[in-house]
Task: inverse folding
């Protein structure tokens, strides 16, 4: 049997769902068993996603591993999934980070462990679903489905202000989603009216959307855009993020930063661009300005954050600003860099949150002022944190550089001024990250509470080491990833003639 | 042989990996020896490469080695590829040769430090980065090496991280360099936008056709590249990080912040001379900034009391000379001075390190004096370096500095030459002052330091001796050196104008050196003129120079603090107040809903499912109404 005929995508959706179901049936008082089942499920899921990468034909360009069944025939909604260069790496990122997320929760989650693990696995189903759906209704259902487990993760297992953060996260995203739903429905009904053939199929609606009057296209684009921009989050829609990140448990932050934010960018590329290419092109300069503001603004605000997690959250605003700047450059390097940088940000920010979680478990604080001189007490931790920091500031030889350079080159070729302003961001990234690093790890080890800290254990090193290896691998040999992305970039460029 | 040139990278890289993972298990001696041998092997391999290159006819001495594809995206193809030509081989030998000596020296210097494995790991990593920088065959790989050495510099300046001043200095170095790199990165982008490639060979071949000589694009590209060089090579206005970099261990100051890394900017301008030849304005800027920096830093060095600070400002000043050279088109002369400077400045720093080591950490020259008889090897080698940097024939510095001054004079820009000449006098003066204060006259060493006073171990004195020999005789190879580099810089000849004969120029520069030394001798040795009285007569000038023209203070006031205040305002008032205020205040609706949701926090999934269904129904209705009306 040909590898690409196997229903791998359906399996990817089924395995974590089955794992979650199994957990429901298990005894909640046996944490070892629960964790074992959850971790095995996530590992099987990761193993299942690898054949996608192996079987993927980078030059084919079209949708692969496609599956399609009728879902709600009366509405013309179908279960239509598939992968291409756009979502393949995001799926791998999702399965990869979920494993690490569960590993990182090994000792951190004290109460309601069962519910926590179920939420993690259901979240994975939702995220995979978002990335593989090629039917607008199916996409929307998965999109909303990710909200609930994440809301739970923040609201139940979060920090002190978890309720505020969770509600803010939920309502903010919901507000955007509603706009998107309206846009989807308008598109659906318009198409049904015009062609007499109701469908949520993305390809069909893409052909139809071109025939809509300009003003309708503009409104619909804006509706999609706001929904996705909130998720990204693009300045000025970003204020839910620092709260959500700060309050979420470690794995929640990892998944939130690593994968959920990427759903916004992915949505723009998968839906907003193909459906309304002319509008996207016309809006590109304005959106790029928002992205640039985000890059510089995120960096400035990050600089003075007293809490490490909040600092990393604002750094995400800056990094995602880079990604949006890249994709709205609408140039080959900008798009390649933007898509690659989604993966890079997932890895480096994911690792940052994992590491911050490890120190939080030991010290129960994330206030920068509470640390200082940690290198002396935790050399291994410090080195790992340093490598991730360097990746985050885009040092050549790490993955961050490849993505940022492509983005900036792409932006520069589109508009020199935008490229130049974006490049300013690399100065400020160094400022806030290195200053934070200095205050946490350098200086005298003078706080009594820090002196007795123990360095990372084997499990913790194992959690971060794979990311470190990927950071260096992508830094030196990004070839396989860029080749995977390339056909998707060509397809996107074709939209804009 | 030449196909295996990449092995020079492999030895130190192996050193990095082994010492990073097993350094402390290997023990102090093995760890240091391993790191040293790794760099020495690179040097020997470099000698082999040199031999291989010399076997080729002069015009064929340019070998491109493509290792693997690095970044490929649409029309962008950047390979991990190396360029072996006379220029890169000279740099390779300087880096690994001086590097190996300084590694050896570090075995002695760092023998008390508990963090030896970390130190040698960083040091080897630095060699890898520096070799990538000089061997890169395209702009992006050059940039990679450039940033990699910047990282090592950051780590090594802040090596004693528990000292706040060291950690601050490391961060300052990295960030100031990033300001320069901002320009460098833009230059690379502009090169790609202009040429469609980043490969050296392609860009330099196409440049005369694609670029209009003296045109805006050529000028912009070269000025942007030079911005990077200003940062890395510590020129005005981005030199402020280098004096602070002296917080690092002294071998680091010698290797990275004097002999090799800081010369990367000079190397970059020389490497891209084809572009600078098409941009006379940029070349003039390079020469002007170089000359200005040379005299500016020299004046600061006149009054410093910390021996390492004197040497740091001296380095800035000498780098200025090198930029003067490449700015007037005398590329070979610039690289030659880079090479001789690597010898004598590394020697000066290592000698200073030996003094500091002997005095138990003392760096203030006011508490030194009379050390020549106590530290024989250090003293003699330091004197050689002093005479070399002062430009006393027949030592190396005389030849290389004289070549630069002659080139400046012949370029027709007499003011540049004159300032260079004055700087030569100042250089001789401040170096003589340092030598007299440190090694001669009465001892001002504190009692307990005098008690421990000892000459350094052979691991430290052997490198001093080798460097002293090189600093003494390297000048004799001037013509062979220039001949070897000739093919690289062919077509880039400094203008030959009339005017004073060569002999007169030489006489003048020697005179400047002699005057400088004599004056220092009168002031600090004979005490015929008391320096304190001069200082007291113009106290404000002395303060101005001692505080390095208050530039750091100015940056703090005009750049750092305002930006920090802006960040505070954005974070506190704007982000939390305005943006989040609007979000939280989308008033009654949101708060009403959240109050209700707060009551639902127990988390029953069916509640959410229910609300979702409700939401969908409402939205569908809205949508239907909208569709009807559109």
Result:
């Amino acid at each position: 049997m040909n590898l690409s005929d196997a229903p791998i995508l359906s399996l990817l959706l089924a395995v974590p769902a089955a794992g979650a179901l199994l957990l429901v049936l298990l005894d909640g008082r046996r944490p070892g068993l629960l964790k074992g089942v959850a971790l095995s499920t996530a590992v099987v899921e990761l193993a299942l996603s690898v054949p996608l990468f192996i079987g993927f034909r980078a030059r084919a360009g079209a949708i692969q591993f496609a599956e399609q069944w009728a879902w709600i025939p009366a509405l013309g909604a179908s279960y239509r999934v598939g992968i291409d260069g756009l979502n393949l790496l995001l799926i791998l990122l999702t399965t990869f980070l979920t494993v690490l997320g569960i590993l990182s929760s090994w000792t951190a989650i004290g109460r309601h462990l069962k519910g926590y693990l179920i939420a993690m696995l259901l979240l994975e189903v939702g995220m995979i679903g978002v990335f593989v759906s090629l039917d607008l209704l199916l996409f929307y259902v998965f999109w909303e489905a990710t909200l609930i487990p994440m809301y739970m993760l923040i609201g139940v297992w979060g920090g002190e202000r978890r309720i505020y953060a969770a509600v803010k996260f939920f309502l903010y995203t919901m507000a955007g989603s509603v706009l998107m739903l309206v846009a989807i429905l308008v598109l659906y009904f318009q198409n049904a009216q015009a062609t007499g053939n109701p469908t949520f199929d993305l390809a069909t609606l893409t052909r139809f959307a071109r025939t809509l009057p300009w003003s309708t296209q503009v409104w619909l684009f804006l509706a999609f855009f706001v929904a996705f921009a909130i998720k990204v989050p693009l300045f000025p829609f970003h204020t839910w993020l620092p709260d959500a990140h700060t309050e979420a448990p470690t794995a929640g932050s990892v998944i939130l930063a690593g994968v959920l934010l990427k759903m916004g960018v992915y949505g723009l590329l998968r839906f907003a661009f193909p459906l309304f290419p002319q509008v996207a092109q016309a809006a590109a300069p304005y959106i790029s300005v928002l992205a640039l503001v985000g890059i510089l603004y995120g960096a400035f605000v990050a600089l003075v954050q007293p809490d490490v997690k909040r600092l990393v959250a604002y750094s995400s605003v800056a990094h995602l600003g880079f990604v949006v700047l890249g994709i709205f450059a609408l140039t080959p390097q900008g798009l390649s860099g933007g898509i690659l940088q989604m993966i890079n940000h997932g890895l480096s920010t994911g690792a940052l949150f994992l590491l911050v979680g490890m120190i939080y478990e030991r010290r129960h604080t994330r206030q920068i002022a509470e640390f200082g001189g940690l290198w002396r007490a935790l050399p291994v931790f410090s080195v790992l944190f340093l490598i991730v920091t360097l990746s985050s500031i885009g040092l050549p030889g790490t993955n961050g550089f490849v993505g940022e350079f492509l983005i900036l080159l792409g932006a520069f070729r589109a508009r020199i001024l935008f490229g130049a302003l974006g490049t300013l961001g690399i100065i400020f990234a160094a400022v806030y990250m290195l200053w934070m690093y200095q205050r946490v790890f350098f200086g005298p080890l003078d706080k009594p509470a820090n002196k007795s800290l123990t360095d990372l254990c084997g499990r913790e090193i194992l959690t971060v080491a794979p990311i470190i290896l990927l950071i260096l691998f992508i830094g030196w040999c990004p070839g396989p990833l860029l080749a995977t992305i390339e056909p998707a970039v060509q397809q996107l460029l074709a939209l804009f003639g | 042989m030449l196909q295996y040139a990449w092995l020079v990278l492999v030895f130190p890289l192996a050193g990095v990996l082994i010492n990073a993972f097993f350094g402390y298990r290997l023990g102090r001696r093995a760890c240091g020896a391993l790191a040293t041998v790794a760099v020495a092997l690179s040097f020997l391999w470099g000698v082999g490469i040199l031999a291989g290159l010399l076997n080729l006819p002069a015009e064929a001495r340019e070998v491109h080695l493509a290792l693997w594809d690095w970044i490929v995206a649409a029309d962008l193809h950047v390979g991990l590829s190396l360029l072996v030509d006379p220029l890169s081989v000279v740099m390779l030998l300087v880096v690994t040769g001086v590097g190996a000596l300084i590694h050896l020296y570090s075995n002695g210097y760092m023998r008390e430090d508990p963090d030896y494995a970390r130190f040698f790991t960083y040091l080897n990593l630095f060699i890898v980065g520096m070799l990538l920088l000089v061997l890169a065959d395209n702009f992006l790989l050059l940039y990679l090496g450039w940033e990699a050495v910047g990282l090592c510099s950051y780590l090594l300046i802040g090596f004693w991280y528990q000292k706040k001043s060291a950690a601050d200095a490391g961060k300052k170095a990295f960030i100031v360099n990033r300001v320069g790199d901002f320009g460098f990165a833009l230059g690379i982008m502009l090169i790609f936008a202009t040429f469609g490639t980043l490969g050296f060979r392609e860009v330099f071949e196409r440049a005369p056709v694609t670029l209009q000589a003296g045109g805006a694009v050529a000028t912009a590209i070269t000025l942007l590249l030079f911005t990077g060089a200003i940062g890395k090579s510590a020129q005005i206005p981005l030199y402020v990080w280098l004096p602070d970099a002296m917080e690092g261990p002294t071998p680091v100051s010698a290797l990275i912040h004097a002999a090799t890394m800081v010369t990367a900017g000079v190397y970059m301008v020389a490497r891209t001379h084809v572009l600078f030849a098409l941009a006379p304005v940029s070349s003039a800027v390079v020469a002007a900034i170089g000359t200005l920096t040379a005299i500016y830093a020299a004046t600061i060095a006149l009054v410093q009391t910390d021996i390492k600070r004197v040497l740091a400002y001296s380095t800035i000043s000498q780098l200025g000379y090198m930029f003067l050279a490449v700015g007037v088109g005398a590329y070979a002369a610039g690289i030659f001075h880079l090479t001789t400077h690597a010898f004598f400045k590394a020697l000066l720093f290592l000698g200073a390190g030996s003094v500091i080591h002997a005095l138990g950490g003392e760096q203030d020259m006011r508490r030194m004096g009379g050390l020549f008889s106590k530290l024989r090897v250090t003293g003699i080698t330091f004197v050689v370096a002093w005479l070399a940097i002062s430009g006393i024939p027949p030592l190396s510095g005389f030849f290389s500095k004289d070549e630069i001054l002659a080139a400046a004079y012949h370029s027709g820009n007499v003011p540049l030459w004159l300032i260079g000449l004055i700087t030569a006098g100042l250089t001789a003066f401040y170096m003589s002052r340092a030598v007299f204060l440190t090694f001669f006259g009465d001892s001002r060493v504190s009692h307990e330091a005098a008690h421990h006073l000892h000459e350094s171990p052979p691991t430290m004195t052997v490198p001093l001796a080798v460097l002293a020999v090189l600093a003494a005789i390297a000048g004799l190879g001037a013509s062979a050196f220039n001949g070897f580099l000739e093919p690289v810089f062919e077509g880039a000849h400094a203008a030959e104008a009339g005017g004073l004969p060569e002999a007169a120029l030489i006489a003048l520069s020697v005179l400047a050196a002699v005057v400088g030394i004599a004056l220092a001798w009168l002031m600090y040795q004979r005490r015929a003129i008391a320096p304190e009285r001069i200082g007291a007569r113009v106290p404000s000038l002395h303060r101005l120079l001692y505080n390095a023209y208050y530039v750091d203070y100015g940056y703090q006031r005009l750049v750092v603090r305002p930006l920090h205040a802006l960040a505070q305002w954005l974070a506190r008032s704007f982000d939390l107040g305005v943006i989040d205020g609007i979000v939280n205040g989308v008033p009654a609706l949101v708060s009403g809903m959240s109050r209700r949701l707060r009551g639902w926090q127990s988390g029953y999934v069916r509640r959410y499912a229910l609300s979702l269904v409700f939401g969908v129904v409402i939205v569908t209705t809205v949508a239907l109404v909208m569709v009807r009306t559109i």
Remarks:
- Chain A has 20 helices and two strands.
- Chain A touches chain B through 78 residues (CB under 8 Å).
